[in-house]
Amino acid sequence: MNRIYLDNAATTPIRSEVLNSMMPFFDNRFGNPSALYSYGQEAKKAIEEARDKVAAAIGASEDEIFFTSGGTESDNWALKGAAYALKDKGNHIITSSVEHHAILHTCQYLENQGFEITYLPVDEYGLVDPNELKRAIKDNTILVSIMYANNEIGTIEPIEELVKVAHEKGVLFHTDAVQAVGNVPVDVKKLNVDMLSMSAHKIYGPKGVGALYIRKGLRIDTLLQGGAQERNRRAGTENVAGVVGFGTAIELITQNIDEHIKKLTMLRDKLIDGILKIPYTRLNGHPIKRLPGNVNVSFEFVDGESLILSLDMEGICVSSGSACTAGSIDPSHVLLAIGLPEEIAHGSLRLTIGEENTEEEIDTVINKLPKIVDRLRQMSPLFERIKKEKKLV
Ligand SMILES: *Cc1c(COP(=O)(O)O)cnc(C)c1O
Q1: What does the record give as the active site (predicted)?
Q2: Cβ < 6 A, ligand 1 pocket
Q3: Whether pTM exceeds 0.70
């Protein structure tokens, strides 16, 4: 059976060009980039070329890019690094209630360390209100961290406006842009952010590599102590193959970003229209300020897990929310934050479209989904009762 992969927000297939660019560094180009002989220096050169590509993709200069082990490390570093560097200035950090766990759990850790965290609420679409941020900033606020685009519901936050509000009060701004880079044009100079997190495996690159953009001149504490790699700011022998793959992936995706956005948006809107024809269904997240590949929908009287398993039997891979909550029975914190009642949050699906999806695949899903939803609803006593009461069908 042909698999239809619609979970590109969890991870993306690696592109052949990316894999090919990485292979020599697992093989004969294995030299340590810190070594002085040419073997090592070749590896060093490959890392610096990748750094140029990452910098160019987001409008940064290459000395503002620091490679990490992925989005999670970049988020941890930004928050803990800024918190400890600025702890004499204040201990208050502001974030939002819809962040990825890499941010939320780091904030909880910092709370245990004596920092004070404000979790800003969001509206029904998942948007953070800049006025709400303005009200939350206090004299002891040292950092604001708000994600660029939400990994579950796809909502794109008004980062430029939020940065302005933070900077007016002299507060640093970090954004988790793991879902945004490669899916919307990202320019750190236009956004004016101080720090920005990226990850390679969400943009057709390898897992286990990412980067943190740190604005020139900004000093934050280091997370890892050790060697002098990454200009003394991130110790440990570099993941050379991973970094090279990240460079190739980000260059490829940003070269064709307009086309990428156009294609994904078309498929997304088609999928949304098709799904919303099913009765008792709603779209979660903002209808327009939304990632081009994100569809998040709730089906009343259906359990999301059953829906995922039924789709899996048809070869269709989708998610109930974020991959990190798979297997847990707690409903998504994002869906609760936009005000969905628990039972509706439980009947939610996230379908995320990527480069490799075709219109035929979307047609197949639109064709199969109504039957599956209907079959599951027939098993729901609640749905039976509603049907009788409203004389449906
Ligand atoms: C995937 C993701 C992360 C974590 O990135 P990893 O590279 O998997 O550690 C962080 N934030 C967001 C918004 C994500 O989607």
Answers
A1: 324
A2: 70-72, 75, 100, 102, 147, 151, 176, 178-179, 199, 201-202, 210
A3: yes
